[in-house]
Amino acid sequence: MTIWTDLSGTGFELSYAPVNGTPTRVLRAGDGEAVVMLHGTSGHLEAFVRNVPALAEHFALHALDMLGHGYTANPGGDLRIPRYVRHVLDYLDSRGIERAHFIGESLGGWVAGRLAADHPGRVGRLILVAPGGTVANPEVMDRIRTSTKAAVSSDDRNLTRRRLELLMHDAVNVSDELVDVRHAIYHRPEFVAGIDELLCLQKMENRSEDLLTPEQMARITAPTQIVWGAQNPFGDVPEAHRMQQSIPGAALEILPECGHWPQHEHADRFNKLALEFLGRERA
């Protein structure tokens, strides 16, 4: 299976949106209520290619390369959570979208959660997929920082593959094509130049200030579904339970034999769960 065959039966548009002066790569597909899809640290919109066909049958999808990620420009300076939130809000405004559902994975879940806490009127329903940002674990932060910088600083594709394999319970889910896509992104001169700014949340002083706190999570009024992998290498299952307890009325689904990319490793199950939660399950 390749990215192209995943998407080949779905009408979509891949373009660059001028978001407050920042060219932002976005994949749009489908019609209906807006669903914004946000990926993780050093990631890109291809994280959701196995979800686009099923969800685009019912929704207008907007999968973004977040600020300084993928092929979206990095305007300079440390990329902290308030800047990511502002970029997403500016994107919504540029499209005339007053309210959207959100699917946020890892860093994207952190951003979506903060957006929902601070701007409740902009969020319909919220799906947080192995979301980060509720703890500051030095070992995990170092693993993210060192593995990413190693892959970015070397032309060795095996280092890019290893970075992707960190996300998976089963390495078979890391295709050659996915490695090629990420390797090309990692070696864009603009990406290399901004890698320390992109990884700034792996520094304790930055992460601690930007953490998604229990008080912030308690302010989330959007119906929330948390999806977690039982073998998530970047966060143990108790972390997911604490998040569920902090967000009023949140539901939690823990997928067995699953790492940090539930939406990719268990796409069929994730898509069914997402459609049920968003209210568009097929009859």
From TrEMBL:
<feature type="domain" description="AB hydrolase-1">
    <location>
        <begin position="34"/>
        <end position="267"/>
    </location>
</feature>
<dbReference type="InterPro" id="IPR050266">
    <property type="entry name" value="AB_hydrolase_sf"/>
</dbReference>
<dbReference type="InterPro" id="IPR000073">
    <property type="entry name" value="AB_hydrolase_1"/>
</dbReference>
<dbReference type="Pfam" id="PF00561">
    <property type="entry name" value="Abhydrolase_1"/>
</dbReference>
<protein>
    <submittedName>
        <fullName>Alpha/beta fold hydrolase</fullName>
    </submittedName>
</protein>
<keyword id="KW-0378">Hydrolase</keyword>
<dbReference type="GO" id="GO:0046464">
    <property type="term" value="P:acylglycerol catabolic process"/>
</dbReference>
<dbReference type="GO" id="GO:0047372">
    <property type="term" value="F:monoacylglycerol lipase activity"/>
</dbReference>
<dbReference type="GO" id="GO:0016020">
    <property type="term" value="C:membrane"/>
</dbReference>
<dbReference type="InterPro" id="IPR029058">
    <property type="entry name" value="AB_hydrolase_fold"/>
</dbReference>
